Amino acid sequence: RTTMKSLRFISAEAFVSNAQFARRSLGAVAHDLFPLLFKASYLLEQGEVIHDLVENWPLFDLNIGKLLGANLDYQEDLRHRTCSVCLESCLTGLRDYVLNQSSPYMKKLRVVDLTGIKDVEVQFCKCKKTMGRWARTQMISKLCSELLVYLQQAQCNPVTFEISINVLIDLFVTERNYEPVMLALLKKCSCPLKICCTAFRSDNLTLQKFFYIIKLIDPFLLRKLEIVHNVHLEMEHLEMLFNSTHFPLLMSLTLPARTFNVRRFTATDEQMLTNIGEKMGEMTQLTELSVSFSILTGRIQKLLSPLKTPLKMLDVSNCSLNHADMAFLANSFHAYHLEALDLSGHDITELYPSTFFKLLSHCSSVLRSLTLEDCNIQDTHVNMMILGLSPCQKLQEFKFIGNPLSSQALKHLFTFLCELPMLKNVEFPVPRDCYPTGITYPIDDASLCRFDNQKYERVAEELNFILLQANREDVKASTPLFGSYDAAVQETNNELGAYLIKSFKETLEKFTTSFNNMS
User: So which residues are the signal peptide here (predicted)?
Assistant: First the structure.
């Protein structure tokens, strides 16, 4: 599909396509053409031109999301292109904007917004090299530190020290890039480029370092907080965090696995959970919550009832919810506002079918994403699922891998899914009849790939043909055996893998020592 371009945009492409000419001529370009030239340069991956445009930026703000988004001149959205050449040129151009003392333009720039960039699985840039969120965090932090060192050593124009630019960015911090980020945040007051964190993700970080850096990022600005893999945050630490830090603008909260475990609750723990719920109730902007892989049996009401704002996204996958939990969700005011819901790991059709379908009915008018992985949905439940999903006319994404469904049941379900007008993405399981007879669910990792691949491919073709016949080529259907694509995990998988090996080795050493002591 070709996207229409205005004559202005075609002219801009022609201008930046000769990098040497464009760089020489920037001084004669009208200020209001810089945004147009930026998008044209980004599309053509003209890194040198991007650098010079940013170095001489004549406007008050530089918002990457707005610059690369769809506009009247060129309607294609380029925000998903995390092209390394373009982004590196943009960031070094920002550094040189501060250092450039011969720029013909008065330095007006006050805000740089890098938050509009979208990390996706498939990249269309020619260089095929991406700069993900972790790498962007690392680079802007290092540039801030380098800038400070240079300003302290060199004879700079006094005006340079008066420059103050807020750089809005979604930070992603792990053990490997902690030091440069921490240094940049510590010296924020002295640096012309001031990192302003609007979203923070922490993976593979000690609690001590997490608590230290969360203070440095200015939690008053934070809208999204993700504490994910290998951050051993338990309930008492979460209470400590909420008691010591105020998050007035927080809209989205993701907690690591096993933050809560009601199976070993004492009276003190019950009070702690009440306190956490009350603190979350004070976060009046909070509309997204993920507490997956915690054990919250019978405690969902205690955690969620203090919330004053309805949740739009809720992930309680693998939380061992009971009937009381599901009844609370179905009858709560959140039910009517849920746009994304993940109930994976719960036997919904056997344990609480009526309350689950009541919840689905209440959120059907707004629901956009539904995830029901490993929910023991069988062939006998398909008609009931179709009945429950029929009102969900705004559903864009349905994920249900890990369920014991036959090829025939999947075809029946896909015929119905074609009728959902907004549907764009379906993640379906490997059919049960592709596995050896006697396979048990949920399937363990060792058996997950032991299926008849040729038969699966035939079934997948038939399912795609059902979509094709219904003129639904716009729907992407896939079977990601090991979970959906996660840009953050993909970018740091080497570090996470090394951490897991280290943890396994330490556990093995402890076991060996204990065994030897017993001997």
Answer: none
Residues 88 and 234 in one domain: no
279 and 418 in a common domain:
yes
Q: Are residues 122 and 226 in the same domain?
A: no
Regarding whether 402 and 259 lie in a shared domain, the answer is yes
505 belongs to a structural domain: no
| Domain shared by 421 and 284, yes or no | yes
Structure tokens at 293: 């892989």
Cis, peptide link before residue 442, omega less than 30° from 0: yes
Where in the sequence is the domain holding 346, given as residue range(s)? 222-481
User: CB neighbours of 285 closer than 8 A, spacing ≥ 6?
Assistant: 223, 248, 249, 250, 251, 309
Residues 448 and 317 in one domain: yes
Q: Flag residues of the chain having pLDDT under 70.
A: 1-2, 102-105, 495-519
Q: What is the pLDDT at residue 505?
A: 54
pLDDT score of 475: 97
- Among residues 51, 53, 8, 45, the alpha carbon closest in space to that of 26 is found at 53
Neighbouring C-beta atoms of residue 431, cutoff 10 Å: 24
Residues in contact with 80: Cβ distance below 8 Å, sequence separation at least 6, in sequence order: 118, 119, 120
List b or e across 361-377, with b for residues whose CB sees 16 or more CB atoms inside 10 angstroms: ebbbeebbbbbbbbbbb
Q: Tell whether 264 and 386 lie within a shared domain.
A: yes
pLDDT number for residue 482: 81
Number of domain units in the chain: 2
> 124 with 235, same domain?
no
Residue 163 inside a domain? The answer is no
154: three-class secondary structure by DSSP: coil
The pLDDT value given to residue 488: 78
What pLDDT is recorded for position 229? 86
Find, among 177, 190, 184, the residue nearest to 145 by Cα: 184
CATH number at residue 358: 3.80.10.10
- Rounded Cα gap, residues 507 and 288, in angstroms: 35
Residue 74's nearest CA partner among 159, 2, 152, 4 is 4
Does residue 390 belong to any structural domain of this protein? Answer: yes
Q: What one-letter code names the amino acid at 465?
A: F
- Give me the phi and psi of 62, to 5 degrees please: -135, 100
Please report whether residue 2 resides in a domain. Answer: no
Q: Three-state SS for 386?
A: helix
pLDDT at 151: 87
340, β-bridge pairs? 313, 369
Q: Are 254 and 218 in contact (CB under 8 A)?
A: no
Among 32, 147, 119, 46, CA closest to 88: 46
